[in-house]
Specification:
Blueprint lengths: L8 E6 L7 H15 L3 E5 L5 H7 L7 E4 L3 H14 L3 E5 L3 E3 L6 H19 L3 E9 L4 H12 L3 E4 L2 H9 L6 E2 L20 E5 L8 H15 L4 E6 L5 H13 L3 E6 L4 H8 L2 E6 L2 H9 L3 E6 L5 H9 L6 E3 L19 H15 L5
Parallel strand pairs: 1-2, 1-4, 2-3, 4-6, 5-6, 6-7, 7-8, 9-10, 9-12, 10-11, 12-13, 13-14
Length: 364
Amino acid sequence: MNLRTATAATAFLSIKTQFDNAGDALINRELSRLVARRAKTYVDFSRAPAAFEKSMGIDELPNATSLRKRGFALLVLMILRERLHRRECFLFLNPGGLGGGKLSWKARLSALAYNMILTFLAALGVKVCQVGISYERMGRIERAIAKWRRRIMFSFCVRDRLSQQYVNSIGMPSDEIVPDLSFNLYREDAAPSRARSRIAISFRFDGKAEASRIREAVQQIAQASGEEREYLFIVQVARDLDGMTELQAACQAAGMQTRLVVCHDDIDSLATIYSECQAIYSNRLHALLLAAHSGAAPYAVISRGSQPKIEGMFTDLGMADRILFLGEPTIRFSEAAAFDKTVFRPEFMRLNGYFDRILGPPLT
């Protein structure tokens, strides 16, 4: 990757992700904010629901414009127009977690077609970038698609050391490790917190851990923290609803004071909810990181080896003591330890330093 000089640039994003996931809305929002502070920015929402677009708040950014009509084709035409005028163009691909399973043939063909478009744009001088990503193991065909895409990128940066080790080992090396995009939240302080009497619980139930072990762990948390507290069972990804509803019912039957909170389309409301919590116990990375910014002490409760992006990030941040492995005899739940969220300020500085290097200093 060659660092650019500080000249005016135009940046483009096209949003296609898990639209029922507040964590994905968060990292796409922060990517848009980081880019729009440094370049004229266009964000294509033609494939996104209106609620997702609203949650990202692009229209509030002074240098950003939302696009909905005519979709990705319009975005490509705008890029071509900019390049015809010899303007520097950046295309930022979607952040998030990649790998961990085989794609359908339809998804593979779509990815190959997208690679061809990106190859064409890169040949015209468009700087294709991907930042804020983590990787789990991929199948042979998925690796080939990913390696082709890597070869045309101007900048390719993973967000944790374990991902870096993996992509380096399969011949698609990362340029560097850049902190998770959610650390851009530390540009501003969280809203003032209320009395922190509650505990947040938020889990995914998609094979990453056994539901019975999660239920046992949550009941142990209540025994350590006090069953008289209110426990908020927070659904910030829509597909977690059934599992979280069953978990809440089981814990309520066991004598815990519980409340189910469904909020997967409003990042700011989620932050307010987390500001009322002393701690969060979760196996969702961006539930942990958003809650931590709101002042809740984060504890990752995961099965060993099942969620390398959480293990990798917490280890890189010196927070290995806040990883609790399900089903292991050494696990001990205790009263949540105080958490100083200012330890994440250096991650904010590193993240912004990366965007300063490739896009130049902030425009305003």
